[in-house]
Write a structure and sequence with these properties.
disordered N terminus, cytoplasm, Transferase(Phosphotransferase), domain 1, 14 helices, alpha+beta, 25% helix, SH3 type barrels, Prot_kinase_dom, kinase, non-membrane spanning protein tyrosine kinase activity
Length: 502
């Protein structure tokens, strides 16, 4: 039985844990025989040098002030109706916001005084939202479109940026629209615009600046792809090798023949009586799109076994990766970089009131260049209230679960934050089992007494302080995932630019 099953409450039933496989790497010498001294971001491993990219500019999620608000203390921020803001984190009835124009000040503003502008472009006929490059090309090359037809879509690699896809001379060209540190839009850094509409209007009237003309928006109705079916014939998938076996099924590496790509397929066992419930849950989650979440690609739910098709991550689970020779030589810089990615993905779920309920290293998947994505939404719930109460038949991974969830089955985003603290412990200890040697009952007793996991060896103090913040007894005192992402990004940037050493 796998570790995650051994650490669950013995009196409760299980759903979709233990599904991702353990990947094993060959035993090879770790020491670098070149004698060179390497900085934290350059390590010689069995697969070559692991290097992490320089800290990227944080994407700005745009908000607007709905009303005038006059600051009443130094902690608060004065805003005028229409001011563009970036919300750093939520604090009870307030948000910590930063102005994106003018003084660039930050401070607290009542939460009901601001509104997200994520979908502000839906009114434009050229805005096609979250479609991929291939779908954009198919739409633009359809017979009802001519040269000059174009659309704007959300970037596949940067969820807060956009891409112009334009048809010219029978081909489709793609131009990335980036965001500046103050939220401006630009294709060329020599020319920026306050809104996406202004940028599009400029290039419609100045085609030479872009290199291709922007004429009429793509002619095909947007509704035609918004409801594109996820159900695919299982004949489209060729299974190659089993990657692992879990409590309720296996994971296979496969080829999606019609799409010419490698995928991972979670296959539910036929004797699983809860298949219908699980498929409905996956259907509810198919609208989630973020670079730090494993992307659901297709379903084969007609007949048995049920296939759940997702993107394939080359290095397997973070749990297995940390235990590999490559994972064992990672420095704090690498681990903090990876942890920041997880926090970014969880912040996206937090905004949508989605509780994961099983956040742990076994449910984070790793690809090349230390790319990490949150996986396994088998226990996730989309909730309208701030707290979800599980049934007594649900099995709970106690070592990763907040006390209020383990004892009273009350799950929330804040219980996920507790789990994130344990995940950081797993990462900084290079895969050590939390509360090793203790039973579930002993773990709960220790937590009730105020005990917390000790700082792992070689763990920077500021990272351990973040863990302790995640383990605050009162759920409301735990940080948001937006705040955790911001903190980890900041620490990583300081390490990368050598202002602190680890």
């Amino acid at each position: 039985m796998e570790d995650c099953c051994r650490t669950c409450m013995p009196c409760l039933g299980c759903m979709w844990n233990c599904i991702w496989p353990e990947f094993h790497y060959p035993n090879v010498p770790i020491n670098d025989d070149t004698g060179a001294t390497r900085r934290p971001a350059d390590i010689r491993t069995i697969s070559g040098d692991i290097s992490v990219p320089s800290p990227k500019k944080r994407p700005v999620q745009l908000y607007a002030a709905l009303f005038d608000f006059e600051a009443r203390s130094e902690e608060e921020l004065t805003v005028k109706e229409g001011d563009k803001l970036s919300v750093i984190e939520k604090r009870g009835d307030y948000v910590l916001a930063k102005k994106l124009t003018g003084s660039l000040e930050s401070g607290l503003v009542p939460a009901n005084y601001v509104a997200i502008l994520q979908d502000e472009f839906a009114k434009h006929k050229w805005y096609y939202g979250n479609i991929n490059r291939g779908k954009a090309e198919t739409l633009l090359l359809a017979s009802q479109n001519q040269d000059g037809s174009f659309l704007v879509r959300i970037s596949e690699s940067h969820s807060d940026e956009y891409t112009i896809s334009a048809r010219s001379e029978g081909k489709v060209y793609h131009f990335r629209i980036q965001r500046s540190s103050i939220g401006a839009y630009f294709v060329s850094d020599k020319l920026s615009f306050g809104t996406l509409g202004e940028l599009i209007n400029y290039y419609q009237n100045n085609s030479r600046s872009l290199g291709v003309p922007l004429g009429l928006p793509c002619a095909q109705q947007r509704e035609l792809f918004d409801m594109e079916p996820w159900e695919r014939p299982r004949e489209e998938f060729q299974l190659h090798r089993k990657l692992g076996e879990g409590h309720f099924g296996a994971v296979w590496e496969a080829t999606w023949t019609t799409e010419h790509r490698k995928v991972a397929i979670k296959m539910l066992k036929q004797e699983d009586t809860k298949q219908d419930e699980f498929v409905k849950e996956v259907q509810a989650l198919k609208s989630l799109h973020h670079p730090k979440l494993i992307q659901l690609l297709a379903l084969c739910s007609r007949g048995e076994p049920v296939y759940i098709v997702t993107e394939l991550m080359s290095k397997g689970s973070l749990k297995a990766y940390l235990a590999s020779p490559e994972g064992q030589v990672l420095k704090s810089a690498h681990l903090i970089y990876m942890g920041s990615q997880v926090a970014e993905g969880m912040a996206y779920l937090e905004d949508r009131h989605i509780v994961h309920r099983d956040l742990a290293a076994r449910n984070i998947l790793v690809a090349e260049d230390l790319v990490c994505k949150v996986a396994d939404f088998g226990l996730a719930r989309i909730i309208k209230d701030s707290v979800y109460t599980a049934s007594r038949s649900t099995k709970i991974p106690v070592r990763w679960t907040a006390p209020e969830a383990a004892l009273h089955q009350r799950f929330s985003v804040k219980s996920d934050v507790w789990s994130f603290g344990v995940l950081l412990y797993e990462m900084m200890s290079r895969g050590k089992m939390p509360y090793d040697g203790k039973s579930n009952k002993e773990v709960l007793e220790l937590l009730a007494s105020g005990f917390r996991l000790p700082s792992p060896a070689r763990c920077p103090q500021n990272i351990y302080r973040i863990m302790l913040d995640c383990w605050a007894p009162e759920a409301l005192k735990r940080p948001s995932f937006h705040a955790l992402h911001s903190q980890l990004d900041s620490i990583y940037a300081r390490i990368y630019f050598k202002t602190i050493e680890v």
